[in-house]
Specification:
Elements: H1 20-93, H2 99-107, E1 113-121, E2 164-171, H3 174-186, E3 190-200, E4 207-215
Antiparallel strand pairs: 1-2, 2-4, 3-4
Protein name: Type IV pilus assembly protein PilN
Keywords: Coiled coil, Membrane, Transmembrane, Transmembrane helix
């Protein structure tokens, strides 16, 4: 089958000459544009990937900060617990059981002498308002101590161990008071025993007295040695 081309000669395609140089330049431009588009796409992909990595790093950093804060809190709490444990250990080491001491004191008392009060303090100038106990055979007085803690920045405070015993009593005669003081001096628990004062009661004619006995610092557990 034949085809008839009615176009003028200048418009006939098979007679039109192809400009190879222009064709090569167009191809090169197309390749460069394609390479640029691929590079830009790669850049966008890398940028998005980097942004996601930065977000992951920020999330991990936040988690690490929380973990570090928790570790610091635990460290502070551990230090506080160690200080409290050390304070409790000191309290246990300085603890006294007074049963044998009071029993020995009662055995040294003359028959016409009895006690009206007994105070155990760390300083005779700071006497408690109430007596700790009365000296009766077999009684045990456990030293009550307390660890006082403030805020986390304050140091744990422990009370001083008792060092002075204040003995108050009455006697029918003054020689019995002197005998009692001498017997207290011979006990292993005291480093010194002094008669603080003595008075005559106007009501019954008995003699009231106060004796200051200093506990031995070198033998904190003397009360337990009997």
């Amino acid at each position: 089958m034949y085809k008839v081309n009615l176009l003028p000669p200048e418009l006939m395609g098979w007679q039109k000459k192809v400009d190879k140089r222009r064709l090569v330049m167009g191809a090169l431009c197309s390749v460069l544009v394609g390479i640029m588009l691929l590079g830009y796409g790669r850049f966008l992909y890398n940028a998005d990937n980097l942004r996601r990595q930065l977000q992951d790093v920020e999330t991990e950093l936040t988690q690490y900060q929380v973990a570090v804060a928790n570790v610091q809190k635990l460290t502070v709490k551990k230090e506080q617990n160690e200080k409290t444990a050390a304070a409790l250990q000191r309290i246990i080491e300085t603890r006294r059981v007074w049963g044998s001491t009071l029993e020995d004191i009662s055995l040294t008392m003359p028959v016409d002498l009895w006690l009206t009060g007994l105070q155990i303090v760390d300083d005779k100038t700071k006497l408690p308002q109430k007596s700790v106990t009365t000296a009766q055979p077999g009684n045990e007085v456990n030293q009550t101590t307390q660890a006082v803690t403030g805020n986390p920045t304050e140091q744990t405070i422990t009370p001083n161990p008792p060092s002075v015993m204040i003995i108050e009593g009455k006697s029918g005669t003054t020689p019995s008071i002197g005998v009692f003081q001498k017997h207290l001096t011979n006990l292993i628990y005291f480093s010194s025993v002094q008669l603080e004062n003595t008075e005559v009661s106007d009501e019954d004619g008995t003699f009231t007295f106060t004796i200051i006995a200093v506990l031995k610092e070198s033998d904190r557990n003397a009360a337990d040695s009997k």
